[in-house]
C-alpha cells in the first residue's frame, strides 16, 4: 500500500475483533499523534487506555453519565453502550488538556487534539488495525470527564474504539473534493457543497 492508498482506503468501523494493538504497537501508533500540528507546542492531546477489566468499569461510569443526563434514558441505549464500552478490544479516551486563558485560542487547542486523533486513526489503518471515534452527550459531561482524569477546564473529546476490523472495511462513496474547494479571484468564494 502506498502512503496515498493508505490515506484513501481508511474508513471507520465499529466491527472490531481481537487483537487490539499491543502496548508496543499502541506506543508507535501514538507516536504518530505527536506529529500533529500544534500552535504553541501546547501538546493538548491526552490518551487514556482502557483494556481488560477497565472497559466494563468504564462502561458503568458511562451509563451513570447517561442516567445523570437523562434519568429516563431508554434501556436499549444503555445496553448498547454497556456492550460497546465493555467489549471493544481497546477503548482509548481522548482528552483535551486545555488552557482557556492562553494566547493560543481554545479553538486552536481543540482542533490540534482533533488533528492528533486523525493521525491515530490513520496510524491504526497503516498498521492493520481499525477504529472509530465516538462521542455523544456523555462526552460533554464534566463529571465523567473528571472521573476519567480531566477536571474542568479540561475535557473529553470522545473515545476511540480500537481493534482489528472484521471483514472488509466499509467503502462509502466519498464526496468529490472539488465540491469543497474554490479558487479565490478577489470576490468571496462559494462552494458546490453548499449549493442545493
Ligand atoms: C468528534 C467526532 C465525534 C463522533 N462521534 C460519533 C458518535 O458518537 N457516533 C458515531 O456513530 N459516529 C461518530 N463520529 C463519526 C465517526 O467517527 C466516523 O467518522 C463516521 O462513522 C464516518 O466514517 P468515516 O470516518 O469512515 O468517514 C464522530 C466523529 C467525530 C470527528
UniProtKB/TrEMBL annotation:
The keyword Nucleus does not apply. Its cofactor is FMN. Its EC number is 1.-.-.-. InterPro entries: NAD(P)H_nitroreductase, Nitroreductase, Nitroreductase-like, YdjA-like. Keywords: Flavoprotein, FMN, NAD, NADP, Oxidoreductase. Transmembrane segments: none annotated. It comes from the Bacteria. The keyword Nucleotide-binding does not apply. Residues 16-163 form the Nitroreductase domain. PANTHER family: NAD(P)H NITROREDUCTASE YDJA-RELATED. Belongs to the nitroreductase family. This is Putative NAD(P)H nitroreductase.
Amino acid at each position: 500500500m502506498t502512503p496515498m492508498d493508505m490515506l484513501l482506503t481508511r474508513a471507520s468501523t465499529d466491527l472490531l475483533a481481537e487483537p487490539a494493538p499491543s502496548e508496543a504497537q499502541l506506543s508507535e501508533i501514538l507516536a504518530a499523534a505527536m506529529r500533529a500540528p500544534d500552535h504553541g507546542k501546547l501538546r493538548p492531546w491526552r490518551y487514556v487506555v482502557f483494556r481488560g477489566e477497565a472497559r466494563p468499569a468504564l462502561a458503568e461510569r458511562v451509563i451513570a453519565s447517561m442516567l445523570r443526563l437523562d434519568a429516563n434514558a431508554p434501556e436499549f441505549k444503555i445496553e448498547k453502550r454497556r456492550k460497546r464500552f465493555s467489549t471493544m478490544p481497546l477503548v482509548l479516551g481522548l482528552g483535551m488538556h486545555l488552557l482557556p486563558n492562553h494566547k493560543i485560542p481554545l479553538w486552536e487547542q481543540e482542533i490540534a487534539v482533533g488533528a492528533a486523533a486523525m493521525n491515530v486513526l490513520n496510524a491504526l489503518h497503516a498498521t492493520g488495525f481499525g477504529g472509530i471515534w465516538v462521542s455523544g452527550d456523555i462526552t460533554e459531561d464534566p463529571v465523567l470527564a473528571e472521573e476519567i482524569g480531566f477536571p474542568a477546564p479540561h475535557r473529553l473529546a470522545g473515545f476511540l474504539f480500537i481493534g482489528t476490523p472484521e471483514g472488509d472495511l466499509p467503502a462509502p462513496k466519498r464526496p468529490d473534493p472539488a465540491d469543497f474547494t474554490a479558487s479565490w479571484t478577489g470576490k468571496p468564494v462559494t462552494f458546490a457543497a453548499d449549493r442545493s
